[in-house]
Design brief:
Blueprint lengths: L2 H18 L3 H9 L7 H12 L1 H9 L12 H16 L5 H15 L2 H22 L1
Helix pairs in contact: 1-2, 1-3, 1-5, 3-5, 4-5, 5-6, 5-7, 6-7
Length: 134
């Protein structure tokens, strides 16, 4: 399974988990029904977000302008959680790749306003993160 596909499926899983408290294994099984390939990276992403969700959510909240995390659309929340997980905990994937993937997934699953908002949140996070590392 390509990483882009794994990310798209991870967003679908995270959405199901967030919306309906679907167990992780069931969410993965549902998104893999029409797919072949090894879901190893998909599982890594979903498990990672779930394991670090409190840290990820705390970090996301710092960059939401005029919104509460609980009030943004569930799919956007899933996209942000996945992107923040990869940036915060996945050192092998460049930040720009994560940001581009998040924007493309938002275009696929959300609307124009949402992908622009996700772009803004991630840009602010990365600017602040890169300033702190200098």
């Amino acid at each position: 399974m390509k990483r882009r596909t794994a990310r798209e499926k991870a967003v679908q899983c995270l959405f199901q988990i967030d919306m309906a408290n679907v167990p992780v294994d069931d969410a993965i099984a549902m998104v893999m029904e029409d797919s072949d390939g090894d879901p190893q990276y998909l599982r890594y992403l979903v498990d990672g977000v779930m394991e670090h969700q409190q840290e990820i959510d705390a970090e996301i909240r710092k960059y939401l302008r005029g919104w509460k995390l609980e009030r943004i659309p569930n799919v956007d929340r899933a996209i942000l959680r996945l992107a923040f997980f990869e940036i915060m905990f996945e050192e092998d994937t460049p930040e720009k790749v994560v940001m581009n993937e998040a924007i493309e997934i938002a275009k696929l699953f959300s609307d124009e306003q949402s992908y622009r908002y996700i772009n803004g949140v991630l840009s602010s996070f990365l600017q602040n993160r890169n300033r702190a590392q200098v």
